[in-house]
Design goal:
Strand content: 15-25%
Mean pLDDT: 90
CATH architecture: 3-Layer(aba) Sandwich
Helix content: 25-40%
Structural class: alpha/beta
Radius of gyration: 16 Å
Number of strands: 7
Number of helices: 7
Order of helices and strands: HHEHEHEEHEHHEE
Distance between the termini: 40 Å
Length: 207
């Protein structure tokens, strides 16, 4: 199976051309996210993809550092930033473990359609807790494949074998919220976003 980096490098150009499948759910996500952001905030977005969300939120905060494991995703995002003339977003190829991301340096960390793609989402959430300042918020939306029956697991496994699907961790809403709480967060808001695959929206604060 390809690495996460190589998989998303290959997918980046086609991913950038795809329209958002559920625009009302996406707009609702942005609306609720903005409710927790302030103009002076320094924000980290993990798994930023081709940068659309970071660019849309750029005017709501002081600065966004947007990271992704894929070099090609970052190239596309950086090109979009230049064309849009947005100076308050920095796109970087990096993971959450990057040593340049300093402890307690962000007012908010965003992770949209990200946690279920990790081998160890619990470790990622703990790292996010460390990166946040006291009182900072962690805002996530995660695809919930846990408990899926029928052909879904077989279909995904088959696609992974031939390189057409990335690694997937099977999470459900309860497990996501347990991991967030175990990392030391206080959960402020949760919601389901229906679509072809249900996603769980969670907002949590670092005490």
């Amino acid at each position: 199976m390809p690495t996460q980096e190589s998989f998303w490098d290959r997918q980046a150009d086609s991913y950038a051309k795809k329209p958002i499948k559920d625009m009302p759910a996406y707009e609702r996500t942005l609306e609720r996210t903005r409710a927790y952001l302030s103009p002076a905030d320094h924000v980290l977005e993990a798994g930023c993809g081709t940068g659309s969300t970071a660019l849309l939120l750029a005017t709501d905060v002081a600065h966004i550092t947007a990271i992704d494991v894929s070099s090609r995703m970052i190239e596309i995002a950086s090109d979009k930033r230049e064309k849009a003339g947005v100076g308050s977003v920095a796109f970087r190829k990096a993971t959450l473990d990057d040593a340049s991301l300093e402890t307690a340096s962000f007012e908010a960390v965003l992770a949209f359609s990200f946690l279920h793609l990790l081998d160890d989402p619990g470790a990622a959430i703990r790292r996010i807790h460390d990166l946040l300042k006291p009182g900072g918020v962690f805002i996530s939306k995660t695809v919930c494949l846990g408990g899926k029956v029928g052909l879904w697991p077989l279909l995904i496994k088959g696609m992974q074998i031939v390189g057409y699907a990335p690694h997937v961790t099977y999470l459900d809403a309860e497990r996501i919220e347990t991991l967030v709480a175990e990392a030391g967060f206080d959960i402020l808001e949760t919601a389901d976003y229906p679509g072809s695959l249900t996603s769980r929206f969670v907002v949590a604060r670092k005490p």
